[in-house]
Amino acid sequence: MKKTLLAVCFGGATLLSPLAMAEDSFPRLETIGVGEVTAQPDMAMFTVAVEETRKSAQEAKQAVDKAVTAFMDRLQKSGVKRADIESANIYLHPQYHRSNDNPPELVGYQATRQVTVMVRELDKLNTYLDNALGDGINHIQNIELKVSDAEKYQEQARQAAIKDAQSKAKSLAKGFDTDIEGVWNIRYFDSMPRPVMARMAMDASIETKATYQDAEITFRDRVEVVFRLEK
């Protein structure tokens, strides 16, 4: 894990926020603190789908149901809890053959079902994806990498942002031969880490494991603080 603190400096009238200027005048200083923490993912959520086309709607449904059932059974036998598996409803679409001279001709039905899986042991992700292929799943729609203790890293980023705001305020006050008397106002906006999406083909090789195991998730936070200066 590594931390990076980013400094933001203001010039002229931008040091005074509109909220601060609306109150009785007194010496003040406004800073923005930004904290950043990176962590390696240890979980993942992936969504796969099976899509089949058959002459009848019933045949198409049976084909996708068979693949989804086999995949879900294999996941549970591998230790994945049922609560970590979500199977979406089936979607059926009629398929038509169209030509310029004739009306559309119904040629079959396309059925689609999705399965979303929460993987709590990242080193097993590649195995689950290989199993999906073997069970008839024919689409990997997305893989989102996650961190199990995300709240801990977000709190570290928040504390880094607070220290950043304090450090800049102390530095600026010292540069202008004054001292900070206390905090007058704090503004805070919730920050959420951006999801890390991994790309993988259905025939992914062993070497592909490193592409998500070596990835990093960045947690950022920000705080705006108005400090009261000594008169």
Top-tier CATH class of the largest domain: Alpha Beta
Q: Provide mean pLDDT, rounded.
A: 84
Q: Please state the second-level CATH architecture of the largest domain.
A: 2-Layer Sandwich
* Number of beta-strand segments: 10
Q: Please, how many domains?
A: 2
Distance between the termini: 42 Å
Short note summarizing the structure:
By secondary structure, the chain is an alpha+beta fold. The protein has 5 helices and 10 strands; from the N terminus they run E-H-E-E-H-E-E-E-H-E-H-E-E-H-E.
Strand and helix layout:
Blueprint: E1 2-7, H1 18-21, E2 28-39, E3 43-54, H2 57-77, E4 85-87, E5 91-97, E6 105-119, H3 125-134, E7 139-146, H4 150-175, E8 180-188, E9 196-198, H5 209-213, E10 217-229
Antiparallel strand pairs: 1-2, 2-10, 3-6, 3-7, 4-6, 5-6, 7-9, 8-10
Protein name: Oxidative stress defense protein
GO biological process, one term: DNA damage response
Signal peptide: 1-22
Kindly list the characteristics that best describe this protein.
single chain, 231 residues, alpha+beta, Alpha-Beta Plaits, 2 domains, 10 strands, elongated, disordered N terminus, 26kDa_periplasmic_antigen, signal, Oxidative stress defense protein
Structure description:
- With 231 residues, the protein is α+β, with helices and mostly antiparallel strands.
- The chain folds into 2 domains: 2-40 and 149-194 and 216-229, 2-Layer Sandwich (Translation Initiation Factor IF3), CATH 3.30.110; 43-146, 2-Layer Sandwich (Alpha-Beta Plaits).
- It has helices at 18-21, 57-77, 125-134, 150-175, 209-213, and strands at 2-7, 28-39, 43-54, 85-87, 91-97, 105-119, 139-146, 180-188, 196-198, 217-229.
- Strand 5 and strand 6 (105-119) form a beta hairpin.
- The longest helix is centred in the last third of the chain and has 26 residues, at 150-175.
- One of its GO terms (biological process) is DNA damage response.
- Keywords: Signal.
- This is Oxidative stress defense protein.
- Residues 1-22 form the signal peptide.
